[in-house]
């Protein structure tokens, strides 16, 4: 009985994920594409739940749907999308090359994926379902590995996120060339110059901290 | 588990290939970017499926790492996009054919 439910749930989630992926690449409006990606993320998270991996599913929904796609939508809100004019969705000449290449890639990967492989007990790792249950769930089992064998990559990932946050701030900052060229008037100084400089100082400060952190974790 | 490993791998491959198709076919730089995120989804699904069926947690750790890199990539990429749109005011990827201006 449970196996039938599992097969039905897998079919629903897989079909909806693929349909949403197709919608993501084929819709004209970028906002609709982002919403298609939200659908893909939710259905892939459902597949993770089906595999008994609730923690990764939750992280997937929180990070992807909650952070990355919201970032996309905020960027689309900042940019004036009407400026781009009307983009034709598919260009025939491009389609002529893109479709066979993507289809070839899928056939290759599906060929490998569908080839029959026995999973022997020698190939299996240290976390069978019984051990995961004994530890208390998928989150505990993941923590068991993440905070022991993969501690250094985990810490380096935090430095990567900090560097990306600083890099994004520096790249997207509005550089006002007039203000840089002209000597700062008292009004400009009060209104814009001081906070901008303050921001830069803060950035420099965080950069220094990042380097220090990196050195510290490199020593572990 | 009633569903075999191969089924998960094929869904992952399909989502990845659709992402590649999107990168090749679309000219709006935002949608190219979204297609790259789609490819990452396919990879995550494959890693998670291997991790579950081989009963090894290494794959799930890799999924977490890939999520981290995807978040960093989205932040920096969208910042570059904002800077580009200030300079060029278009989103057609064919117009970005110079590394310097």
Outline the structure in words.
The complex is a heterodimer of chains A (220) and B (101). Chain A has 220 residues and is mainly alpha-helical. In chain A, 77% of the residues lie in helices and 0% in strands. Chain A is built from nine helices and no strands. Residues 191-220 of chain A have low confidence and may be disordered. Chain B has a single domain (7-94), classed as Helix Hairpins (Orthogonal Bundle), CATH 1.10.287. Chain B is 76% helix and 0% strand. Chain B contains three helices and no strands. In chain B, α1 (5-25) runs antiparallel to α2 and α2 packs antiparallel against α3. The chains are: A mainly alpha (220), B mainly alpha (101). At the A-B interface, α1, α2, α3, α4 and α6 of A face α1, α2 and α3 of B.
Which key terms come to mind for this protein?
heterodimer, A: 220 residues, mainly alpha, 9 helices, extended, disordered C terminus, B: 101 residues, Helix Hairpins, 0% strand, elongated
């Amino acid at each position: 009985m449970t196996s039938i439910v599992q097969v039905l749930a897998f079919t629903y989630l897989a079909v909806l994920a693929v349909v949403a992926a197709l919608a993501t690449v084929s819709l004209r409006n970028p906002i609709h594409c982002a919403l298609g990606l939200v659908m893909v993320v939710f259905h892939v998270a459902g597949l993770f739940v089906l595999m008994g991996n609730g923690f990764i599913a939750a992280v997937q929904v929180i990070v992807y749907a909650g952070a990355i796609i919201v970032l996309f939508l905020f960027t689309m809100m900042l940019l004036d999308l009407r400026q781009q004019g009307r983009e034709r969705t598919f260009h025939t000449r491009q389609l002529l090359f893109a479709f066979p290449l993507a289809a070839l890639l899928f056939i290759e990967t599906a060929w490998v994926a569908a080839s029959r492989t026995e999973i022997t007990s020698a190939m299996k790792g240290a976390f069978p379902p019984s051990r995961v249950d004994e530890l208390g769930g998928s989150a505990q089992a993941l923590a068991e590995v993440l905070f022991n064998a993969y501690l250094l990559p985990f810490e380096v990932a935090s430095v990567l996120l900090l560097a990306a946050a600083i890099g994004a701030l520096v790249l997207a900052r509005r550089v006002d060339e007039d203000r840089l060229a002209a000597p700062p008037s008292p009004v400009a100084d009060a209104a814009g110059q001081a906070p901008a400089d303050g921001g830069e100082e803060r950035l420099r400060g965080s950069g220094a901290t990042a380097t220090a952190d990196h050195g510290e974790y490199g020593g572990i | 588990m009633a569903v075999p490993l191969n089924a998960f791998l094929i869904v992952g491959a399909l989502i990845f290939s659709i992402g590649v198709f999107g990168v090749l076919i679309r000219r709006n730089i935002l949608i190219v970017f979204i297609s790259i995120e789609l490819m990452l989804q396919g990879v995550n699904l494959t890693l998670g499926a291997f991790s579950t069926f081989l009963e090894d947690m290494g794959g799930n750790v890799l999924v977490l790492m890939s999520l981290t890199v995807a978040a960093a990539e989205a932040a920096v990429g969208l910042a570059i996009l904002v800077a580009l749109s200030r300079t060029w005011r278009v989103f057609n990827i064919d117009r970005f054919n110079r590394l310097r201006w």
